[in-house]
Amino acid sequence: MLQFLIRRSFGAVLILVLISAFTFFMFFAIPQDPALLACGKNCTPDALEIIHKNMGLDQPVTVQYWDFFIGIFAGRDFAVGHCAAPCFGVSFANDQNVWDTILDRFPVTVSLTVGSLIVFLIVGLGAGLLAAKYRGSWIDKVFTSGSLVISSLQIYFLGPLVLLLFVYSTGWLEKPKYVPFSEDLGGWFAGLLIPWLVMATIFTAQYTRMSRSSMIEQLQEEHVRAARAKGMSGNYTFFRYAWRGSLVPIVTILGIDLSSLMGGGMVTELTFGLAGIGRLALDSVTNKDLPMLMGVMLVSAALIIFFNLIVDAMYAVIDPRVRLS
Q1: Burial of residue 73, with CB atoms counted within 10 A of its CB: 0-12 exposed, 13-18 middle, 19 or more buried
Q2: I want to staple 120 with a disulfide (CB 3.0 to 4.6 A). Which of 185, 203, 215, 275 is the partner?
Q3: DSSP string covering 264-324, please?
């Protein structure tokens, strides 16, 4: 296990370096000068030259990337002050420290992503297991048909519809907002309930169908049939043998869906007006804010790689037949 984690960690570092280099050099393919954003409407050539120097844009692209890369580990000095490690630079748009801005927005995205993840795993896997257990019954038909209908919905359609019905028309639920967890637990839960449900709905349908098909396949395996032949109860073999084996393909897809979950978080934040990492990424693209864009992309990529590493390690825990080599 330790060798596997070390090997994957080296691979993860290489991937992050390649992502940073690709994003950095691709940014400079854009013809518009990013210094114009900070210069404002009444920009003069002298002022633009000073901004170029303060931002380091007067250096060759390769030197700029090297300064950015070293700054992550050792920090950097800018015209607005020193940026301590990990330093992802200073925003072109507002001269704010990129890392501090990401940390400020991070709790919103984590709360939204983890909450919706818990909801769709519980509901999706639960519905799929019930559909498999009562295969062919009305329960199976309801869950299967419902998942097909729900899978056609999108966040940008379902979100405004839920707001109209449950917030503006009836007032049953609070308008989505972010309240820090440490300040008000009830306000945190109530403010994110609608975004959790809407975001989870899109993924619930997929995991209902997936868990159902995986469970039905496991119920046909020889070791499950052998357990039944030995006189073990149906519920015991269902949960002790079949359910555990059905988790392997689900965990695999979950590792892939983490990136989709981040993308869904961006759409959800825009739909409900939440200021998280997704909204920050969109604003950085719109403003051509390279330091902020680089910081958001590297942090998001690092999280996705980290969670995929955990998913790979979980195979050996879920299925004893799997060995990490």
Answers
A1: exposed
A2: 203
A3: HHHHHHHHHT--SHHHHHHHHHHTT-HHHHHHHHHHHHHHHHHHHHHHHHHHHHH-TT---
Give the pair of three-digit tokens for residue 57: 């844009």
Q: Which two tokens stand for residue 227?
A: 């357990």
Q: What would the pLDDT profile of 59-93 be if each residue is shown by its tens digit?
A: 888 888 888 889 888 888 877 778 888 888 888 77
CA gap 98, 109 in Å, rounded:
16
pTM attached to this predicted model:
0.81
Contact 264, 202 (CB under 8 A): yes
Q: How many other C-beta atoms lie within 10 A of the C-beta of residue 229?
A: 10
Instruction: Supply 286's token pair.
Output: 């719109």
Helices (H), the chain: 2-27, 35-39, 45-55, 61-74, 98-133, 138-150, 155-163, 185-219, 222-229, 234-237, 243-272, 277-286, 290-318
